[in-house]
Amino acid sequence: MKREIRAIISTDIYEELQKRCKMYSCEEGSVIQEALTCFLKNCKKEEMRESMRCGYQEMSTINKEYAELALDIDENELCTYERVLIIPGGGSDNDS
After folding, report:
1. Pairwise CA distance, residues 55 & 77, whole Å
2. To the nearest 5 percent, what fractions of the chain are helix, strand and coil?
3. pTM for the complete prediction?
């Protein structure tokens, strides 16, 4: 289904449109429809980029929290290991 729209454009743009349509043997309406289609696709791309940007920002926060948690666990493990090394006998119960 097609709909009709009316738009007021500057004389310069209209004259350029007529000139290009004659040059490329195309209809004004098809050029305008293609331009609007292009505009709408670009809008959708920009919305997707913004959505992805927000998603990546959220993920960076989550990744940072996981990295800090892993670092804390590693630090605790290192401290435990170092304590075992300090205990006389190296922490081994098999020493006689």
Report:
1. 33
2. 80, 0, 20
3. 0.62
Residues in the chain predicted with pLDDT less than 50, given as ranges, are 96
Question: Domain limits of the chain?
Answer: 11-89
- CA dist 63 and 57 (Å) reads 10
Q: Which of 1, 58, 63, 9 is nearest to 32 (CA)?
A: 9
Residue 25, Ramachandran bin (φ over 0: left; ψ between -120 and 50: alpha; else beta) = left
Q: What is the pLDDT of residue 96?
A: 46
- Please list, in sequence order, all residues whose beta carbon lies within 8 angstroms of the beta carbon of residue 84, skipping any fewer than 6 positions away: 90, 91
